[in-house]
Amino acid sequence: MSWQQVLLQQLVNGLTIGAVYALIALGYTMVYGILQLINFAHGEVFMLGAYVGVAALALLGPSVSGLPAGLAMAAAAMAGCAALGWGIERLAYRPLRRSPKLTALITAIGVSFLLQNAVMLGFGARDRRVPNPLPAVRWAIGGVAVTGMQVVIIVTAALMLVLLHRFIRRTRLGQAMLATAQDPVAARLLGIPVDTVIAWTFVIGSALAGLGGVLFGLYYSTINFHDGYLTGLKAFTAAVLGGIGNLPGAALGGVLLGLLEGLSAGYLSSQWKNAVAFLVLVLLLMFRPRGLMGEQVADRA
Amino acid sequence: MKRRGLFLAAALVILPVVDGNAYHLDVLTTAWLYALLALGLNLIVGFVGLLNLGYAAFFAIGAYTYALANLHAGVPFWLGLPLAAVVAGAAGVLLGLPAIRARGDYLAIVTLGFGEIVRLVVTNLERWTGGPNGLMGIANPTLGRYDFGVASAPYYWLTLALVGLVIWVSQRLRRSRIGRAWAAIREDELAAQCMGIDTLRLKLLAHGCGAAVAGLAGCVFAAKQGAITPDSFDFVVSVTVLAMVILGGLGNPLGAVVGAVVLTVAPELLREFAAYRMLLFGATLLVIMRVRPQGLLGTYGAPAR
Amino acid sequence: MAARRWWAIGLAVWLAGCGPHEPVVKIGFVTPLTGDQASHGTDMLHGAELAIAQALDEGPVLPGYRLELVPLDDQHNPAQAVAMAKKLVADPAVLAVVGHLNSSCTKPASAIYHKARLLHVNPVSSNPDISRQGFDTLFRICATDDLQGPAGARFAWQTLGARRVFIIDDVTTYGRGLANEFEMAAKGLGFLVLGHEGITQGEKDFTPLLTKVKALGPDLIYFAGIFPEAATLIKQRHDLQISATFLAGDGVYEPTLITLASPEAAEGIYVTALGADIRTVPTAKAFVAAFEQKYGRLGAYSSYAYEATRLAVRAIRTAGRADRAAVLAAMRATSEYAGILGTHHFDTKGDTTLRTIGIFTVQHGQFHFVEVVDSV
Q1: For residues C234 and C225, what is the distance between their CA atoms, to the nearest angstrom?
Q2: What's the pLDDT tens digit per position in C7-36?
Q3: Same structural domain, C189 and C249
Q4: Domain extent at residue A180
Q5: Predicted ipTM?
Q6: What parts of chain A have a pLDDT lower than 70?
Q7: What pTM, to 2 d.p., does this model score?
Q8: Which residues from chain B sit within 8 angstroms of residue C79, using beta carbons?
Q9: Quick check: helix, strand or coil at residue B300?
Q10: How far does the CA of residue A279 sit from the closest CA of chain C (Å)?
Q11: pLDDT tens digits, residue range B130-180?
Q12: Is residue C289 part of a domain?
């Protein structure tokens, strides 16, 4: 392989995982934009998406395969996670809306632990196999190996981004979400049902995370109860990288982080990959908390 | 109140003589170790109000400092204690410097990031830290010719003594000018700055002191185990210690100890439910936050005199 | 009154600690029973349980005493292994210990057993350093990596005809140790070692590393680690269309590997294992039949756990009394032991002289035995 081919290959690999980070990052950024809450449990929602997808596939049985099966998995994951996200907001976060920040953060951590371990108890601590109903396609484009699954992930993520963008711009609910994020008090005065808007924010963010989870599971063929923690933190890094509260920023951050990770693992060292991601997170939060595309972050002591 | 406290303290001290069960003593020793950690974190989160989700990093630094010093330079335990405290304390100041720039929940995530970075560095520098396999053959403490070995009572008394010491220091600090300045920063940082308080220096001091306490705990842990691995110092440990502080009452040193004891002993009593431990733990966090966010003993304890 | 209540609780807890007094002797058995190695650990536990059951059928092991197996979980975590070791050591009824599975756990725990002068029989930890610590309490019944590594290298050179290798390990005591042994032998044979890198256990994405490997153009990839990471490596190697053959150590020899990696991707990989296929060993026939009847499928290490436990039981029986020193002396006096794996002789370090390395390959979604590469 020539060095150009190696670089392209690394870029393809990085872009794929970056697309997954982008999907998860959207949920983080939407919730933070409206509530200033770091939804610690979001990573677990992502992880559950893969499990729901596996369960859905098992329910369908061997008669269904190929694209319909894949779509069913995705739909089930999105629906299941949307419901879960709604539940978490309603039961865990809403009662604490007026409580101090620390309380909400600890609660979020508690929910995260709860979910992680519920999954561990229910599905076991070992890697769960994620069967892939889609046909395994592999191409070699100019010496660069690309799998069908990689293309599916990138295309799906891009599609979701476009849909979300149009939703925010073109629908009343979308506009309401924007307004609430900008100024919740004013939004309420204008008659916007803030509670409903918040609930929908969680629903949409969680659905996207669930989709990311299913894609993640299909791509790596395995899922583990612990995958949510690390991937969640990386996706949060991506959200901050792009500018928290900024949707296109979250997508951009996801892609950039994926590429950065892949390149550092390929050219520096695979072992230090995660340390690089955390270092990026820490440096960002210290020196440029508004990220690439965000506005100046107000002082939140 | 004071007499009951002395009675309790005396009872705790003579416990190993009355009940020689190694398992009981071991559990309580672990509780005291966590109490140390909780007391240290209490300085940072409780006294000054700085969120910290990466406290386990200082625990790790203390443990590895003693382990490496002992394995490579034969440093004995009693020298290792202050050494670990100093190194961890210095790390606390160093890591605190840039972290202070972040605010609110961002500070929490920065500290989490630091915690993970320390753990990853320790895991990947196999040449020095033994990597994922960790370090073994660390010497137990010795007193004259008596080697602590695998006996339980000596460690029990050691950790209990350290807990007593740190409680005493915590209370003294809280009632001092430093403690009052910390309280001022916690309540309203801007106002404190306007009053002329050097917030940066005081925040770093809190970080350093808290980290030093964790260093002590780390040294004891390494000496007691004889072997340490990176996964004893992960995010779960950081959250556990934070939960102990909150459960007991944020800012309250005695509360921190109570929280530590409760969250160490309860899982042991529920041993058959060991698999559900983390689940119950998460649920506990949720319940405390809903039902009694000020903790069992109330926040900040008695007002500073 | 609060104080009285605390006293009552304290008293109750204390009393609960004192159990009924009846003479019991115990054999400790420590393996990972939870976590990613749980399948191996549980298979081994079944082997141990079978050994105890059969021993009891043959008559009381120690007249007047009841024999109990104490299964403990080290969670594939060295710190936990040390904690479990201390727990066993503190119990005077424990006369011998069988364990652990992973070298990273066995190594620190063996020091604890040695300090307490407690017999320690190790079934399958293959890192050579374990028996180089000079512990006279340690006995090991499997081959070691200073044999497994070179055996793999020789097989790759002679049978596979490979000449350019990239080595990957998981940075554990076992993985790094085995990989280093392989590398030394490979270089000695004339291999061109293109690189040697570590991966972290639990990591999922090896595509950047594998892309780098592909660019270097090896004809062999050698992996020293355990099957979860191996499965991911194998699958991603397949996705990246890397043509190099894949050879791994015994930690990968586990049927779940094929399910996780997909039979298509795992086709044609090779693994070295600590011993020949147990089904081809004549002395093990009765064991295989008994095990499969009771527990179903035989695990990769069940036979070793069985053998190790039988040895511990025999030592206790020979000693004739509930005394650790006597049990240890009885084991040390064992010059020869005819077990299901063959006839063992123990050298001065406590290792068995019965050491064979077997080669297995994956064909049509199953492991198949290829050949034995005998000990030198």
Answers
A1: 13
A2: 655 565 555 555 555 689 999 999 998 777
A3: yes
A4: 3-287
A5: 0.85
A6: 295-301
A7: 0.85
A8: 134, 225, 227-229, 231-232
A9: coil
A10: 18
A11: 888 788 878 888 887 788 877 778 889 999 999 999 999 999 998 898 998
A12: yes
To the nearest 10°, report the CA torsion of A235, A236, A241, A247: 80
Between positions 47 and 106 of B, the ones with CB within 8 A of C are none
Q: Which residues are within 8 A (CB) of B196 and not within 5 positions of it... i.e. 6 or more apart? A: none
Chain A window 84-123: which residues touch B at a Cβ cutoff of 8 Å? 92, 95-96, 99, 101-103, 105-107, 109-118, 120-121
C10 domain-assigned: no
Number of domains in chain C: 2
Structure tokens at B298: 């109330």
- C179 and C306 both lie in a single domain: no
- Two tokens at A274? 């995660």
Question: Are C187 and C80 members of one domain?
Answer: no
Quick one: tokens of C100? 């652990």
Residues in C 108-127 with any Cβ partner in B closer than 8 A: 108, 111-112, 115-116
The verdict on a CB contact (< 8 Å) between B286 and A110 is yes
Write out chain B residues lying below 8 Å of C85, CB-based. Answer: none
**Could you read off the pLDDT of B185-214 as tens digits, one per residue?**
888 888 888 888 888 899 999 999 999 999
- Taking the Cβ of residue A38 and every Cβ of chain B, the question of whether any pair is shorter than 8 Å is answered with yes
Using an 8 Å Cβ cutoff, are C127 and C182 in contact? Answer: no
Name the residue ranges covered by the structural domains of chain B.
23-233
DSSP string over A75-90: HHHHHHHHHHHHHHII
CATH number of the domain at C200, please.
Answer: 3.40.50.2300
Instruction: Give the best-scoring range by mean pLDDT among B12-26, B243-257, C77-91, C219-233.
Output: C219-233
Closest by Cβ to B225, choosing from C79, C90, C107:
C79
Looking at beta carbons, which residues of chain C come within 8 Å of A270? 197-200, 203, 206, 208-209
Partnered with residue C71 across adjacent β-strands are: C29
